[in-house]
């Protein structure tokens, strides 16, 4: 690891707080999805699988493309795709161009759940701006900061510290 110079204690504390907050926010999103699934009476799908369905959307893609797009762990994606096919949320078929590749897309049942989750997210957006008082430009700044952090971490993975 290259030494850049001394790190201010306050800056390090802020960075570490961001790391913990990102992890907590992801868990909290999964909690929100679990609560919504419970409210909808959906016991055949879990919160992680619901997020996968939401991220597939209207697309047709391979499990590998899904892993790259959603940054899911490969074995978890394969297991979750298998379960989503088993419970009728996904259709899968072998690619005509590459016999090893399996293409997946949402079934009508999957599209229905995705529409319901999209409605939940619509409600979240409205409530975030009206109830919490957050402004749209504040959320854009958060996105910008998170994208910069993602870019930094990606560079660390590719090129080292």
Q: What brief labels describe this structure?
A:
three-stranded antiparallel beta sheet; single chain; 6 helices; Arc Repressor Mutant, subunit A; 7% strand; mainly alpha; 161 residues
3D architecture notes:
- The chain has 161 residues and is mainly alpha-helical.
- The model has no long low-confidence stretch (mean pLDDT 90).
- It is globular.
- It has a three-stranded antiparallel β-sheet.
- It has a single domain, classed as Arc Repressor Mutant, subunit A, CATH 1.10.10.10.
- It is built from six helices and three strands; from the N terminus they run H-H-E-H-H-E-E-H-H.
- Spatial extent as radius of gyration: 19 Å
Number of helices: 6
CATH architecture: Orthogonal Bundle
Q: Give the rounded overall mean pLDDT.
A: 90
Strand-helix topology:
Layout: H1 9-40, H2 47-56, E1 61-62, H3 63-70, H4 74-86, E2 90-94, E3 102-106, H5 108-130, H6 136-159
Antiparallel strand pairs: 1-3, 2-3
Helix pairs in contact: 1-2, 3-4
């Amino acid at each position: 690891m290259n030494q850049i110079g001394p790190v201010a204690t306050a800056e390090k504390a802020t960075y570490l707080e961001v790391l913990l907050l990102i992890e907590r926010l992801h868990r909290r999103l999964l909690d929100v999805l679990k609560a919504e699934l419970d409210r909808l009476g959906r016991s055949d799908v879990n919160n992680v699988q619901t997020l996968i369905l939401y991220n597939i959307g209207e697309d047709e893609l391979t499990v590998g493309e899904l892993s790259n797009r959603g940054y899911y762990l490969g074995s978890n994606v394969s297991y979750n795709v298998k379960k989503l096919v088993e419970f009728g949320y996904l259709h899968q078929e072998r690619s005509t161009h590459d016999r090893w590749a399996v293409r997946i897309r949402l079934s009508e049942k999957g599209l229905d759940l995705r529409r319901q989750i999209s409605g939940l997210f619509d409600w979240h957006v409205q409530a975030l701006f009206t109830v919490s008082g957050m402004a749209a430009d504040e959320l854009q700044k958060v996105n910008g900061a998170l994208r910069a952090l993602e870019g930094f971490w990606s560079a660390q993975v590719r090129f080292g510290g």
